[in-house]
Design brief:
265 residues
């Protein structure tokens, strides 16, 4: 019987070419833990690893023992996906490729949008999906897409306050929606089996959530600016979100929302 998520310490087959090894690092930002994806085509003795996970000796040892690993791909820079890079390289001699140069090991070079990688009997297409972070990428297979933290198996992701972008995230969801019917293999949480019809619902639901979030954030920021400017001349309360001075944006109003977010509704 095939194990179900979460299955710590077990290589769990998900599609014909993708299996997952779940790291035991559950938390607020990692859900059940980091999914390390193991990709291998039919008849291949080698495998490609996507995101070795954090610096966890037990997890890295399990990954390294799976078999020959000539290539490791990194979805984005966060430590829960990249912390184990040096240890997996030490154990396997793998080449590590990413968008950011800080995670490159060996002579593979940085990943580029639209690049097709032939490895382990598979053709893996790199798709730039920035938003969660500036360097976020997804990996497209014939029957699946590895979305890392751009689309999670449960809930919605965060926009990194250092280099994330909500506008980029919206565009990344649009690109992913264009892939149509594929299994979604996320960086955290269970895999999502998506039909063509439910694919439209999934991408639109995530997009809708973030659109509403963007509108509320924009309204809040405008309200705070009005409150600060008014406080220099006339005392006013800023404790209640619903207490607004004339001219301030009302909750859920579209008047203070950037045009690109209004179009996305």
């Amino acid at each position: 019987m095939t194990p179900e998520h979460p299955a710590y310490g077990l290589l769990r087959p998900v599609t014909e070419t993708a299996s997952v090894l779940l790291c035991n690092n559950p938390g607020l930002m990692t859900l059940d833990g980091t999914n390390t994806w193991v990709l291998r085509g039919s008849g291949s003795d080698e495998m490609v690893i996507v995101d070795p996970g954090p610096d966890d000796d037990e997890h890295i040892a399990r990954v390294a023992e799976l078999g020959p690993i000539p290539l490791v791909l990194i979805s984005h820079r966060h430590e829960d996906h990249t912390g184990g890079i040096d240890k997996i390289v030490e154990r396997t001699g793998a080449v590590v490729r990413s968008v950011g140069s800080g995670f490159l090991r060996g002579l593979g070079g940085p990943l580029t949008d639209g690049e097709v990688i032939d490895a382990a009997g598979l053709r893996i297409t790199v798709m730039a999906t920035p938003g969660h972070t500036a360097d976020s990428v997804s990996f497209v297979l014939d029957d699946a897409v590895l979305t890392a933290d751009t689309v999670l198996g449960r809930g919605t992701t965060v926009i990194d306050n250092a280099d994330g972008s909500l506008g980029d995230y919206m565009e990344s969801l649009r690109r992913l929606h264009g892939l149509g019917q594929r299994a979604v293999l996320p960086g955290h949480g269970p895999d999502l089996r998506i039909s063509r019809r439910s694919a439209r619902c999934t991408w639109r639901t995530v997009k809708s959530v973030w659109t509403r979030c963007a509108m509320r954030c924009a309204c809040w920021a405008t309200t705070r600016r009005h409150a600060r400017s008014s406080s220099t001349s006339t005392p006013t309360s800023t404790k209640s979100y619903g207490t607004q001075r004339s001219g301030a944006c009302k909750p859920n109003s579209t008047t203070c929302v950037p045009e690109r977010f209004r179009r996305a509704r």
